[in-house]
Design brief:
15% strand, 7-stranded parallel β-sheet, binds nicotinamide-adenine-dinucleotide, alpha/beta, Rossmann fold, 7 helices, single chain
Length: 254
């Protein structure tokens, strides 16, 4: 299937590794011009070089702290001048810490809401005028299965991502007449550095997969393929949706 996004300008946030890196690689393979960002200049430069050499696409790595509004706006300014207005945004950020539901300080709550709600909401709002001008755009938020089935040890994630989902659903209706779609992908347990560190306390790593009907963790590429489809021209009639990619782990009907 030709996804119809050759030469589109894509920004994938939080992409020096993990799910963001896999999404950027998939979009580069589809012929997009890809901007990627993360905090560490050296790491994001190396990630861009790796994607370039694996795909032959134009890929630029930008250092950016997504939790800092000035850094986010500098990033968009640089991309605009290097590549042009963004057609595809994959909004992503580092996840909040795990712990007992009642153990978090006000500062930790503020930080989680800033990273996983405000920074991602603001990123979407900032790219929208360019998409509306072109009457074409794709916004995909990476959230979590915790939106469908909250995870007891991740109250910060459960709360921030539920809020972001409310924002995204409302936004999807608002911009639907402008040719812009807004969707969410909900990863289950995919093999990334974050998942390895969240599960480091398990004595037997095979226990990670015990509640997954497929009996294994997902690979980042298995989420990236869904992101690329939602970013594509072919996904033109899908908006406001939360798409679970979890090997069957969530038990709810919807
Ligand atoms: P990861 O920690 O492996 O990678 C996160 C990426 O974001 C890295 O490139 C990191 O450098 C970058 N990053 C972190 N904080 C940043 C900041 N302030 N500014 C710029 N870049 C920053 O995480 P991952 O497993 O790829 O997950 C990505 C997101 O999806 C996280 O929010 C995570 O909680 C969520 N998620 C992941 C899974 C999974 O199975 N991996 C499941 C559910 C939800």
């Amino acid at each position: 299937m030709d996804l119809g996004i050759k030469n589109k300008i894509a920004l994938v946030q939080g992409a020096s590794g993990g799910l963001g890196f896999a999404a950027a690689t998939e979009l580069a393979r589809e012929g997009c011009q890809v901007a990627i960002c993360s905090r560490d200049k050296k790491k994001i430069g190396q990630a861009a070089e790796l994607i370039r050499s694996n795909t032959g696409a134009q890929v630029i790595g930008y250092p950016c702290d997504l939790n800092d509004p000035q850094s986010r706006s500098d990033l968009l300014e640089s991309i605009r001048s290097d590549l042009g207005a963004i057609d595809i945004l994959v909004a992503n950020n580092g996840g909040p810490p795990s712990g007992d539901a009642l153990s978090f300080s006000d500062e930790q709550w503020q930080a989680a809401l800033n990273s996983n709600l405000v920074a991602m909401k603001d990123s979407a709002q900032a790219v929208l005028p360019g998409m509306i001008d072109k009457q074409w755009g794709r916004i995909i938020f990476i959230t979590s299965v915790s939106v469908k089935q909250p995870i007891d040890t991740l109250i910060l994630s459960n709360t921030a991502r539920a809020g972001l989902t409310g924002f995204a659903k409302t936004l999807s209706s608002k911009v639907a007449p402008e040719g812009v779609t807004v969707n969410m992908v909900l990863p289950g347990i995919h093999e990334t550095d974050r998942v390895k560190s969240l599960h480091a306390e398990l004595a037997d790593p095979s226990l990670i997969a015990k509640d997954i009907p497929m009996g294994r963790m997902g690979q980042p590429e298995e989420l990236a393929a869904v992101i690329a489809f939602l970013a594509s021209a072919r996904a033109s009639y899908i908006t406001g949706q939360s798409v679970v990619v979890d090997g069957g782990m969530v038990k709810g009907l919807f």
